Amino acid sequence: MNPIMILFSGILADSLPVLQLRAVVGEIFIHELERDGFQEYFTDRQGQAPDSPITFHANLLDHPDLPQWLRYVQRSPFQMGYLYGSATDEDVGAQTIEVTAYNRYTYEIVRQTMVISIVPSPDGEMPYQADFFVKNWNVEEVLPTDVHELFQQAVDSMWEQEGLVVVNISSALDRGGRVPLPIENRKEGVYIKVASKDPFTECLTEAKSPENRYRCKLEQQPVITCYDSFSSRFRVDWCNLTLIDLRDLNTTKLVPVYGDGILESGPEFDPPDDASDREFFYDFLLIFLLLLILGLLLCLILAYIMCCRREGV
Ligand SMILES: *[C@@H]1O[C@H](CO)[C@@H](O)[C@H](O)[C@H]1NC(C)=O
Ligand SMILES: *[C@@H]1O[C@H](CO)[C@@H](O)[C@H](O)[C@H]1NC(C)=O
């Protein structure tokens, strides 16, 4: 394809119908960017090979990037892309996301606009939250509904109750993890946060007992009597389990405390002019002379070694 045509097809990009989506505060939101859906719009006009690589770019309408709560992941141009994230109370309302799909063979682009209505959680707050670190999965592998539901069931077996929700899923890479070596099928790891209205069971709190903390310090896995029931498909690092009780946090609401060095808002800063003069002459002498003497001394020693201490002299 010549550059003119590329330009042309770029301008004449098709748009998919606007999509209406819904996100609930405090629950994971996942939207799959199906390659097939976009593929049709490419092939209709061009009759291209049906399986061309596609990459996506997503941004908030009229902004360069996505809103803070939303992330995008796609492992390779031959795989599905995902928009995922967990909205907070501040995001309630409607947000318009623009997704651009690029066909990497023909450089065609197709746009899709989606309106995400973010609504407050109907169940109210889920104060008990547990953050699991699963070592043997990548983030885009747990995003399909059946997989994270499987995980939720596994958690259910330890934390027996009804209303368990997945609050957040995030890649370990976003939380300071490292890219694994490309051997032995190593995975990046993923954090999955699950929340409930009901308190933690003993089984969960057991991971945080003093003995188990001690074992974690020695880099051993803690002994938890009930974790055998956990599905073996998920290798959870029990030392990295975080249990959060939001009710404790809320009583000590985090208010930013401004330290020294931040000016109070008000008129322009007026530097004080009553500061006394400072004498720097002696500091100068000390620094300058000391180094000079030291340098001379080293010079002398070097000269002595070079001239008087050579072999044969
Ligand atoms: C979800 O996880 C991401 C990545 O760690 C974090 O930035 C974000 O604040 C989390 N959102 C919520 C609602 O916990
Ligand atoms: C797991 O937790 C330990 C401390 O509890 C921390 O040093 C380590 O970095 C964590 N590992 C990951 C992958 O988060």
From TrEMBL:
It comes from the Eukaryota. This is Uncharacterized protein.
